[in-house]
Design a protein that fits this description.
single chain; alpha/beta; Oxidized Rhodanese, domain 1; 2 domains; five-stranded parallel β-sheet; two-stranded antiparallel ribbon; elongated; transmembrane
Length: 354
């Protein structure tokens, strides 16, 4: 049992809130909400000051978000791809954040604090755009202030229920700190199990870039599909040789003759969740030999294999639906952006024209 003297709450309560929120904002899977709720109870008991705790929570969140925003500004899309290797859900979160950014602009920074999964990915994603840092931190401060106030006031509002919960916990020889630690461990275990359940079946249907390079040499190479969304393809206008673009909801457009061929799907995300999910959907529709490139387009590039320019929209529209696109004349070399401005295709027009 972890003992935490009552007198220490007034002395170290705000500091604990700062550290907890900072750790959570840096991406370590330790929830910050339970401590904010218990801090709300301590505020009702006059052991903590609301403004001190709120300031500590806001400062911790802003510090963590500034680290991610700066990293996104310095490393660009390479950071997003590195994050994607850590979780199979990052790609979906990136798509959601992009869609919200296009719709609401920088206000997504504040909204994301209340959307599960977006609070961590939004700061580095905004760092890769042309959003002015002052605008980002203004929206970020507004969002984290509203977020922290919501949970502190929630703890104060349900103070009686939380106090009854604490008394029940103490009857069993535990303390509130024990509960917080147990919740953190349960949350971490949940994340690990969720990651394993998603990755385990999909890993069975992957192909390495080296294996794909060897598969391209025989007389009947595999059919390769580019599963990247349009905004990503506009931002990174290059692809594997002799590929065709495919959308997740356009499998019926694929030529029936491709069903019997070896088929490979790729996207730009190193964790390639989209490609693997699409591969599973294609197998369900009758495709017999479908695999996803392990590591996606980035892994292919890192190993020095050839890429080609993506045809313009006009030339793509004239291609035969469901058949691999013809390679462009010659090969082109494309340098990956490592500067401060990436994700241009998902930024609002006002920001991009600035």
């Amino acid at each position: 049992m972890i003992e935490f003297p009552a007198a220490a709450v007034a002395t170290w309560g705000s500091a604990l809130v700062f550290v907890n929120v900072l750790i959570a904002r840096l991406g370590i899977p330790i929830p910050a909400v339970p401590l904010l709720l218990f801090a709300g109870v301590a505020i009702i008991d006059h052991r903590l000051s609301f403004w001190h705790v709120l300031g500590a929570a806001v400062l911790g969140a802003l510090t963590g978000d500034s680290v991610w925003f700066t990293a996104g500004r310095v490393f660009g899309r390479r950071l997003i791809h590195a994050l994607a290797r850590l979780s199979v859900t990052v790609e979906a979160r990136i798509r959601r954040a992009r869609a919200l950014f296009v719709r609401f602009g920088p206000g997504i920074v504040a909204i994301s604090k209340f959307v599960p999964g977006l609070a961590i990915i939004t700061p580095p994603l905004m760092g890769t755009t042309r959003v002015n840092p002052a605008i980002f931190f203004a929206w970020d401060a507004l969002g984290v202030t509203a977020w922290a106030s919501f949970w502190l006031l929630g703890g104060a509002l349900f103070e009686r229920h939380l106090r009854m919960f604490i008394l029940e916990v103490r009857r069993h020889g535990w303390t509130a700190i024990d509960v917080l630690v147990a919740l953190a461990l349960i949350y971490l275990l949940y994340r690990l199990i969720r990651r394993w359940r998603v990755q385990a079946p999909l890993k069975l249907a992957s192909v390495t870039p080296e294996r794909l390079d060897a598969m391209l040499r025989p007389a009947m190479p595999p059919v390769i599909f580019d599963a990247r969304p349009d905004p990503v393809r506009q931002q990174e206008p290059y692809r594997l040789p002799r590929v065709m673009h495919i959308e997740r909801n356009s499998l019926e457009e694929v030529d029936a003759s491709a069903v019997e061929h070896n088929t490979v799907v790729y996207c730009v995300c190193p964790d390639h969740e989209t490609a693997r999910t699409l591969s599973q959907q294609m197998r369900d529709k009758g495709f017999k030999r479908v695999r996803a490139i392990k590591g996606g387009l980035d892994a292919w590039e890192r190993r020095g294999y050839a890429v080609e320019p993506v045809p313009s929209h006009r030339s793509r529209s004239s291609e035969d639906p469901g058949r691999p696109g013809e390679p462009c004349e010659g090969e082109a070399s494309f340098a990956q952006e490592s500067g401060s401005v990436t994700l241009r295709a998902v930024a609002s027009r006002r920001l991009l024209s600035a």
